[in-house]
Amino acid sequence: MKFDAFFHIPIFLLLFFGFFILNSIAPSLFPSYYWYFGLSIVAFFFFSLFDFEIISSFSRFFYIISIVLLLITLVIGQVTRGTVRWIPIGSISLQPSEIVRPFLLIFFANFIAEKKFNFKRLIQILLLMALPLFLILIQPSLGVTALTAIGFFGLFLASEIEKKYFLYLILIASILVPSAFFFLAPYQKNRITTFLNPSRDPLGAGYNAIQSTISVGSGMMLGRGLGKGVGTQLSFLPERHTDFIFASVAEEMGFLGAVVLLILTLFLLYRIIYYSENSINISARIFLSGLFLTLFVQTVIHVGMNMGLFPITGVPYPLVSAGGSSLLATMTSLGIVMGTKRS
Questions:
Q1: Are 290 and 273 in contact (CB under 8 A)?
Q2: Quick one: which H or E segment has residue 89?
Q3: Pick from 228, 291, 215: which is nearest to 258 by CA?
Q4: Whole-Å CA distances, 338 to 55, 246, 247
């Protein structure tokens, strides 16, 4: 593995950024959260040791294991707030729906690159994609389902698929996306219906959106200071360390802190584009496209919902939000990126 300053520095600065803000707003996470930091860094360096061609040779195995893990979660997963997403392992819990995402991207990147497209093959790919998406949706986990689907769509964007098949994809999505609403938990449906008018239920479904926008605005230019945020330290802002980490950053570190966070993320995303343009083969390029779109949309959705622009969907900020499984999956994906570039 060669050191790439434009890739490694943004990654580890974002990790340290998250470390400091989490210590300020949710110190109770530590020291147990050190396990996730450690595992994620080990995963990053481990997967960066291998060329993408070596990793992708296990792609079919990755798909089978991913489906097995998602099924096991529904059977033995820990029930939390009416959802079944986590499997406890000793003192930590892992969320398989997050862990399997990079491996599903590898499988479908290889599968899409293997043969030329025709309508029959498109249907075959969509059916294979539908199975993990359905298993994640019924946990239920709307945010992870959406990000996984967005990653899959990114794979198609980089493939050699004909334009007419994109019309088929749009048609199928226009049918399936509205129907997915019926699989959502009541609180998730309420989040979507409340989005257009949070003030109609300011102490209920609209509370999170209102408090996050207040926190973002109250930080002004330089912020209130670490450990001095009103919404974050007095717990007016719910899930301040996960779904609303951007609002926490904006309140305690101000506009400048939020801008630094976004600039680091943009550097990282730009570097993934560079790797895509210099990828070792077509399947590596397709994988990088799916990963880029996932991280880009994840960032946009997270920032947007923190500013009241999107419905609350529980999407973490990459590498910064508390969420051990999300951190582990993202660092694993970024480690795989290192093996995609031509020598």
A1: no
A2: strand 83-89
A3: 215
A4: 12, 28, 31
| pLDDT tens readout for residues 46-91 | 999 999 999 999 999 999 999 999 999 998 887 776 678 888 887 7
- Please check whether residue 267 is in contact with residue 232, taking contact to mean a CB–CB distance below 8 angstroms: no
8 A C-beta contact, residue 113 and residue 282: yes
How far is Cα 253 from Cα 250, in angstroms, rounded to an integer?
5
d(CA 95, CA 86): 4
Phi, psi at 93, each rounded to 5°: -125, 140
- Residues in Cβ contact with 278 at an 8 Å cutoff, skipping those fewer than 6 apart: 341, 342
Give the number of residues written for the chain: 343
- What letter represents residue 58's amino acid? F
Secondary-structure percent of the chain, ordered helix, strand, coil, rounded to 5: 70, 5, 25
Distance CA(188)–CA(195), nearest Å, equals 11
Give the dihedral sign, CA 9/14/19/20: positive
Sign of dihedral through CA atoms 103, 109, 114, 119? positive
| Residues 114-167: tens digit of each pLDDT | 888 777 888 899 999 999 999 998 887 888 998 999 999 999 888 877 766 667
Asked if residue 142 lies in contact with residue 188, where contact means CB atoms within 8 angstroms, the answer is yes
